[in-house]
Amino acid sequence: MSGSMGLAMTVSDERRKRKCDAKREKRRLKRVADDGRLQDGAEIPRGAVPADRSQQVPNNSYSPPPSFYVDKEFVCVDCGRKEIWSAQQQKWYYEVAKGSLYATAVRCRGCRRKHSEEHQGHGDPNPIKHVGSLMKRIRNDIEPSLENAGFVFDGKDKGTDPRTGWLDYARPGLILQCSFEPREARLIAETMDDRGECRIIANVELCCSRSASALPERVVEFTSAVKEFIPTLPAATDVPDGDDT
C-alpha cells in the first residue's frame, strides 16, 4: 500500500513540476516578446540584430534564410588573425550589398584592404551577380541623362517574379520603362505616350556569349542606346500638357 502511495506522489510531483516549468517558460517567452526578441515564433538571442528577409537575396536552398544576425568569429585566411564579423556588418552585406547568403567573411579588415589594392584593375570580369545589381547598374548609368531631359524616377520592380527587374521614369506625356525579361534574358527599353502609343528604343540579348566579360559590355550597349535616344525627344517644356483653348 505504501509503495502505491509513494508512486502516486512521485507521479503527482512530476506533473506539478512540468506545470511549473511550463508556466515559467511562458513567462520567459512573454518577457522575450516584450523585449522584441521573438520573431516568427523563434527567439532571437540577446544582442542579435533582427534580419529583414524581404531584403535578402533568395538562396535557393531548403534551409531557411537567417532571421537574425549575431557576431561571428573567424580566422583570416591571409594573416591567421582572429577577427569578428559583427552582426551589423552581416546585415549590411546581406541586405544592402545583396551578398549571397552562402558567403561569409574570410579576411580581416587590413588584409581585405591589401587584397583590394593588389587586385585593383584586375577585378571580377562579371560584377553583375543578380537582377538587383543589374538594374542598379542601369539606373546609375541612365538616370542623370533622364533627369536632364525632365524625367523623374517613378518606381522599380513592380513584377511579382523576383527574377524580373523594372525601372520606370515619367515626364508629362511620356513614360519610359527599362525592364529585364528573364525567360529570354533580354533588356528592353520602351516608351509610351499619353495616347497609348509604344515604341521600343533598345532590345539587347544578354546571354548570347559565354564570356563573363561580355555581360557588362551588353549592358553598356543597352544603356548607350537609351542615352542616344534621349536627345531625340523634344524638350520637356515643349511637350503639350493639355488644350489651352
Spell out the blueprint of helices and strands.
Elements: H1 2-34, E1 38-39, E2 42-43, E3 49-50, E4 68-69, E5 72-75, E6 82-85, H2 87-96, H3 109-118, H4 131-148, E7 152-156, E8 165-171, E9 174-181, E10 186-193, E11 198-205, H5 214-229
Antiparallel strand pairs: 1-2, 3-4, 5-6, 7-8, 8-9, 9-10, 10-11
Helix pairs in contact: 4-5
Average pLDDT level: 78
Question: Going across the major beta sheet, what is the strand order?
Answer: 7-8-9-10-11
Task: Please name the CATH topology of the largest domain.
Answer: Aspartate Aminotransferase, domain 1
Number of domains: 2
Q: Tell me the helix content.
A: 25-40%
Which residue ranges are poorly predicted, with pLDDT under 50 across at least 5 consecutive positions?
Answer: 238-245
- What is the CATH first-level class name of the largest domain? Alpha Beta
Radius of gyration: 28 Å
Total strands: the figure is 11
Helix run count = 5
* Main sheet properties: 5 strands, antiparallel
How far apart are the termini? 108 Å
Q: What is the level-2 CATH architecture name of the largest domain? A: Alpha-Beta Complex
Q: Proportion of β residues?
A: 15-25%
Shape: elongated
Order of helices and strands: HEEEEEEHHHEEEEEH
Structural class: alpha+beta
